[in-house]
Design brief:
Layout: H1 9-20, H2 24-37, E1 42-48, E2 54-59, H3 66-69, H4 84-87, H5 99-105, E3 108-114, E4 121-127, E5 130-137, E6 142-148, H6 164-181, E7 186-191, E8 194-198, H7 205-213, H8 215-218, E9 221-227, E10 231-238, E11 243-244, E12 250-254, E13 257-259, H9 262-272, E14 281-282, E15 284-290, E16 295-296, E17 307-308, H10 311-327, H11 335-342, H12 351-354, H13 357-366, H14 374-382, H15 412-420, E18 452-457, E19 461-466, E20 469-474, H16 475-492, E21 498-508, H17 511-519, H18 521-526, E22 532-533, E23 538-545, H19 553-566, H20 572-587, H21 597-608, E24 623-626, H22 628-634, H23 641-648
Parallel strand pairs: 1-7, 12-15
Antiparallel strand pairs: 1-2, 2-6, 3-4, 3-6, 4-5, 7-8, 9-10, 10-15, 11-14, 12-13, 16-17, 18-19, 19-20, 20-24, 21-23, 22-23
Helix pairs in contact: 1-5, 2-6, 6-17, 9-10, 14-21, 16-20, 16-21
């Protein structure tokens, strides 16, 4: 008996469906693309329970002829291409003829369609690849397709579906990309009768961007264009101040098809150059037009990965077009706005202490200094009074201790040294020579040295001395550690003190992200981000924890929300950690910032009180140490033993 046999049509369709139909969003994509190819000007998508229960797509396109309806559900049956030459000049979104038979093989599909050339429409019902009903129907030019019981006969695939919110976000993302690709089509998306998206379909891309990303974001988008002998590019890009934490906001469109291409993404970022902060990405809609002969879309079943001929030339065109457009803009921030947004409106009693370090520097240089105690300045650097009292510095003259005999190891001077730096011996106070090497050392917290400030180097490092040598302190890393411990404590007590905003923040997101935000609202609330629904895909923030920096509330809230958008598996503890690190880094003094003596001493005192004063939150050291011996070696005051012996010869 032969071992090789031909698979049944239904089984072959189900195998093909594994590549074409991964989730409800795949069904929506295929059906909407067919509606676009049918020259529709209006497409309405209705889903129930994120498409798991039901998906309905209604268009006003050309419709399907009665004699073609049943044939449309056969594999590789298509009206898009005829011969091999057409395969390399594809001008439509679909062309393989796999979508409808793949969907019908794993779901229940009902079609109502009518062509303008016929007197009546057609109703066609297919379930699991088998035709159930075909009969005449009322004439409404266009097509309505309803898909239910998705994966009913392949239940194993249901296990791989995510939550309803995640599946709905995937559908919304697909529809958003299609709407950006075809601004001349009016799209609407509903889930359980709630409208999630509505575009005008008037051919104006910026209005489509506004419907998806919000009016405020659309106003910060710049129109650009460029072309050469082979390619034409146009679209909208955001100002460098409008960025996101992921590349998902960059939409690359080739002949009306949304694609993914790493080289083109790099070209977009290269066009911005150094205008973007590290780890930040712009919003962009890049519409690329080219001869179909220069692109091969027959690479992947989803057709999102394509091969482009002369790709380097296209990337260079995109980069140059963006550079030229951004060069026309004045990207220097408004100094007055920056000052008023960060400075409190009411004056405090002590004006000097209320300023940031950057502002304090100019005041110290332009008017006589008002002397404050080290403890007062420490309060400024931290943001509030420290719980521990800061004792005044006492200058101590250190006399060197010279050891000539082993008995001198038990001298009072060395005992004081051991007590100061917590070098402990065993409980019986054994002599040094009797301590066994096998004893386990007592775990003590390392003692932070008593530092005496010397000066500042290049506006970046603080020089200080202690009894055991020279210390160089990285002023940014040091204050970053102090701020980190302060914010970590404040974030943990997020519910204690709240501040009501005089003008609430209104945040608008694309539908796909608004759904993810709604899913994580409880986690965000635990961090102090209290969001209320405020219309379609819009949230309002009326209050925030008091530790938020005045004038930067919106920036902090957006940053925290973006972490959840990038990784929904983040725990509250992880976000608290990331928030504390972010706040400490942004609020700390930077390099090339000159401190006066009082500020430098206050920073050293503040660092001493930290739980871990030795590293910043990123792991970099806050200070390094040169012992007297190290310095003597550096200046050749002490030479290696073999060098001395050679000199004696």
């Amino acid at each position: 008996m032969a071992k090789i046999h031909e698979l049944s049509t239904i089984l072959a369709d189900q195998i093909a469906a594994g590549e074409v139909v991964e989730r409800p969003a795949s069904v929506v994509k295929e059906l909407v693309e067919n509606a676009i190819d049918a020259k529709s000007t209006q497409i309405d998508i209705y889903v129930k329970d994120a498409g798991v229960k039901e998906i309905t797509v209604i268009d006003n396109g050309e419709g399907i002829l009665q004699e073609d309806v049943a044939l449309a559900f056969f594999r590789h049956a298509t009206s898009k291409i005829t011969d091999r030459n057409d395969l390399f000049q594809v001008k439509t979104l679909g062309f393989r003829g796999e979508a409808l038979p793949s969907i019908a093989s794993i779901a229940d599909v009902k079609v109502e369609t009518a062509n303008i050339a016929e007197t009546e429409g057609t109703f066609y019902h297919v379930r699991g690849g088998k035709t159930q009903t075909k009969r005449p129907a009322a004439k409404r030019v266009g097509t309505k397709i309803t898909v239910t019981d998705l994966f009913y006969n392949t239940p194993a695939r249901l296990k791989y579906l995510s939550s309803l919110q995640t599946e709905l976000a995937a559908i919304s993302d697909i529809v958003d990309r299609l709407a950006l690709s075809h601004e001349q089509i009016a799209f609407s998306l509903y889930n359980n009768e709630r409208r999630l998206l509505q575009t005008a379909g008037n051919g104006k891309l910026q209005q489509t961007i506004s419907a998806i990303y919000g009016v405020q974001n659309a106003r910060q988008m710049l129109e650009f264009s460029g072309q050469d002998s082979d390619f034409s590019v146009k679209g909208y890009i955001s100002l460098p101040k409008l960025t996101r934490a992921s590349r998902n906001y960059i939409s690359l469109l080739v002949n009306g098809r949304y694609i993914k291409n790493n080289q083109l993404l790099k070209a977009v970022l290269k066009g911005y150059g150094s205008k973007l902060m590290v780890g930040r990405y712009p919003l962009a809609v890049i519409d690329i037009k080219l001869d179909p002969l220069l692109v091969d879309v027959n690479v992947h079943p989803t057709k999102q990965e394509v091969r482009i001929s002369k790709e380097e030339q296209l990337c260079e065109l995109v980069t140059q077009a963006l550079k030229e457009r951004l060069s026309q803009e004045n990207l220097i921030p408004n100094a007055l706005q920056n000052m008023t947004s960060n400075r409190p409106k009411t004056k405090e009693k002590v004006t000097q202490l209320d300023l940031t370090l950057a502002e304090t520097q100019s005041n110290y240089q332009t008017r006589p200094q008002k002397r404050h105690s080290t403890a007062e300045v420490t309060q400024v650097l931290l943001g509030e009074a420290l719980k521990k009292n800061v004792s005044p510095k006492v200058e101590v003259t250190v006399e060197p201790v010279i050891i000539k005999d082993k008995q001198q190891l038990n001298s009072p001077q060395l005992q004081k040294w051991d007590e100061k730096y917590q070098v402990t011996l065993n409980k019986e106070k054994k002599p040094l020579e009797s301590v066994e090497l096998t004893e386990k050392p007592v775990k003590e917290r390392p003692k932070f040295p008593e530092l005496t400030y010397i000066g500042q180097l290049h506006g970046t490092y603080l020089l200080a001395q202690a009894e055991d040598g020279l210390y160089i302190v990285d002023q940014h890393a040091a204050q970053e550690r102090c701020k980190y411990e302060y914010y970590r404590q404040k974030i943990a007590n997020v519910q204690q003190v709240q501040q009501t905003l005089l003008v609430p923040l209104v945040l608008t997101y694309p539908t796909s992200e608004a759904l993810k935000i709604a899913e994580n609202r409880e986690k965000l609330a635990k961090l102090g981000v209290w969001l209320e629904d405020f219309g379609q895909n819009t949230f309002i923030v009326r209050k925030h924890p008091q530790w938020f920096k005045k004038g930067q509330e919106e920036e902090i809230v957006k940053e925290m929300i973006e972490w959840f958008l990038a990784d929904q598996h983040l725990t509250v503890a992880q976000v608290r950690e990331k928030t504390a690190i972010m706040m400490s880094c942004k609020r700390s003094i930077k390099a090339n910032h000159h401190l006066d003596e009082l500020q430098a001493k206050a920073l050293l005192e503040q660092l001493k009180t930290c739980e871990n004063p030795f590293n910043c939150p990123h792991g970099r050291p806050t200070l390094v140490h040169f012992s007297p011996t190290d310095l003597e070696h550096m200046f050749k005051r002490i030479q290696d033993q073999h060098v001395s012996k050679r000199a004696d010869l």
